[in-house]
Amino acid sequence: MKSYEALSRVYDRLNGEVDYAAIADFYEKAFARYGVRPHLTLDLGCGTGSMTLELARRGYDMIGVDASAEMLSKAYERMWNGGQSGILFLQQDMRAFELYGTVGAVVSTLDCVNYLTGDGDLDKCFSLVHNYLDPDGVFLFDVNTPYKFKHVYGDNAYILEEEDGSAYCGWQNDFDEESGLCRFLLSVFTEERDGRYARADEEQTERCYSREELTGALERAGFSEIAIFGDLHFGAPTETTERWYIAARCKK
After folding, report:
1. pTM above threshold 0.90
2. pLDDT, average across residues 58-85
3. Residue 222's closest CA among 95, 103, 98, 128?
4. How confident is the model at residue 170 (pLDDT cuts 50, 70, 90)?
């Protein structure tokens, strides 16, 4: 569970293409499909708070949980700079988080679940999600698919660049199909005031999960009505789908 020390400073700038409004639309439609209107929603693995703030702007009472103090500091900064308040941000591990009560929905955006890399981590996380959900509450999350790990990540390298050239990220992947683990070797370059670039290196790891592993862990935790979609329009996944969007109902 890496804490995004290097990426926290440039995460939002380098992920500017992510359409959080479209993902929030999907969440709201999924709430309607499952017949829930959450009194309180948990954003698990909230990062810099982009989804937390988007849902808060739509009138949802929010809690954001993330393991990274650096990412949460950005979330707090964005909340206050945006004139919002009332969001509870907690620095906690997805495998061992604690809440003060139950919530009506849990969302987890941008492959946070793939960062559960240890044996049993999936069961620990899903069991806690189930524990803190209201009866019939809904759990919505997404993961990178086996296709993406094999054919997009693999052993490939990428360069992410901020449009104005103020930040770069060199991204080298190392995917081990046997273990299902993919290492990301990151070098982040950010422009200083004097025009020089400061470099920070970081290593992260994600785990590739099959549909069977995900649905099995959800069922063991007590979820039902599990659905896997291939896009934000509730389409069926294909063999080349790169991201699965998963919904499940909490039965108690």
Report:
1. yes
2. 92
3. 128
4. confident
CA distance 26 to 223: 20
Residue 159's CB is within 10 A of a number of other CB atoms, namely: 9
Domains of the chain are 7-144+209-250 (3.40.50.150), 148-207 (2.20.25.110)
Take residue 70 and report the two structure tokens written for it.
Answer: 């650096």
Neighbouring C-beta atoms of residue 179, cutoff 10 Å: 10
- Give the DSSP per-residue string, 207-249: E---HHHHHHHHHHHTEEEEEEESSTT-PPP-TT--EEEEEEE
pLDDT, position 14: 62
- What is the greatest pairwise CA distance in the chain? 59
Distance CA 122, CA 211 (A): 13
What pLDDT, in 10s, does the model give residues 75-115? 999 999 988 889 999 999 999 999 999 999 999 999 999 99
> Packing angle between helix 121-132 and helix 211-221, nearest 10 degrees?
40
- The CA-based angle 36-107-62, given to 5 degrees, is 80
CA distance 100 to 91: 14
Tokens 């206050």 map to which residue? 80
CA distance linking residue 72 with residue 212, whole number of Å: 33
Nearest to 15 by CA among 41, 49, 58, 44: 49
Closest-CA residue to 158 (of 127, 131, 185):
185
